[in-house]
Write a structure and sequence with these properties.
320 residues
């Protein structure tokens, strides 16, 4: 009876983990238009899923169906430069994750996800380095895609107002947000890739291998504590103002690590409260809609504090 209750709890926790990953995947999608929400995140799940299935081969009907669907999602879309970049990135990230899963299966999931993103970024850096205009071309393509998404959003809001022009200050703020999104798109892509890889792993383990709750409960989410120094170095890079390139690198590292620490803080809050109901999740979603900076900032602070104090261990010690 206790074992059944444990599995049921793990199953609910795993389901919430999947929902959290899906939210991260969609929230970090670029651009914010319909194409960005339906294409980019799906590719970042489908391509790694193909790599994971290829690691073991197609040995069952669920694996065959998953392969057909994932292949369809990967090949769909208009084949422009961004299309090829997205799929190349997703395949390299998926291949790295599959290789690490075989090579170091004892690593925790977050470590394999972080290492996969790092290997993928390193591979692209080595590929683009010999060609001086390579990165400029990638940035130009991505910037055009992001800015087009924001322009479509502005046009859509104007259409909803019956063709009336939007407030100029509001349009200016959206255009500023568009430029800021372009500046930190590598960080957003890193977070999006981690979420996509985790979802691909969950689908592969559940559908192909038949494992129950392969991701585990979200309240246990954590990563290497030493990575806090990466965040500190990034903030120092921003504070020193030693150049646009250094500042932009620092901003991307800070956004990437900030996102991870915000998720860690949310996991700590769920652990301390003994879980999270769907009603509680709805309240968090409402808070993100109304007071996103406060909610994210609070979660970020809790996540950083947990690095040194291990709040979940302390709560468990008090409870026992």
């Amino acid at each position: 009876m206790e074992q059944g209750t444990h599995h049921e709890t793990a199953g609910r926790g795993g389901a919430r983990y999947v929902v959290a990953l899906a939210v991260v995947l969609v929230a970090t999608a670029s651009p914010p238009g319909l194409a960005g929400v339906l294409a980019d995140p799906i590719v970042l799940v489908a391509a790694p899923l193909l790599a994971l299935i290829g690691m073991q081969g197609i040995r069952s009907m669920p694996a065959f169906v998953a392969t057909i669907l994932a292949t369809a999602f990967v090949v769909m879309g208009v084949r422009d430069e961004v299309w090829f970049l997205e799929r190349a990135w997703a395949l390299v990230a998926g291949g790295s994750f599959a290789a690490l899963t075989v090579a170091v299966p004892h690593w925790r999931l977050s470590s394999r996800l972080l290492a996969s993103v790092g290997l993928c970024a390193g591979a692209f850096a080595l590929y683009l380095a010999p060609n001086g205009g390579g990165w400029a071309g990638v940035e130009w393509s991505v910037a055009g895609d992001i800015q087009a998404g924001y322009r479509n959003a502005i046009d859509g809001m104007a259409l909803m107002r019956g063709g009336q022009a939007l407030d100029p200050a509001f349009v200016t703020s959206l255009l500023w947000l568009s430029d800021s999104t372009v500046q930190v798109f590598p960080a957003r892509l890193g977070l999006q890739t981690m979420a996509g890889l985790a979802l691909a792993w969950g689908i592969h383990a559940r559908v192909v291998r038949g494992r129950r709750s392969p991701l585990g409960p979200f309240r246990n989410f954590r990563f290497n504590d030493h990575l806090v120094w990466l965040l500190i170095v990034a903030l120092a890079m921003l504070a020193l103002r030693s150049g646009d390139g250094v500042a932009r690198l620092g901003a991307n590292i800070a956004v990437f690590m900030g996102g991870l620490y915000a998720l860690r803080g949310l996991a700590v809050a769920i652990f301390v409260n003994g879980g999270l109901s769907w009603f509680g999740a709805s309240l968090i979603a409402l808070g993100m809609f109304l007071l996103a900076p406060v909610v994210v900032g609070s979660a970020l602070l809790v996540g950083i504090v947990d690095t040194w104090l291990d709040l979940r261990a302390r709560v468990s010690a008090v409870a026992s």
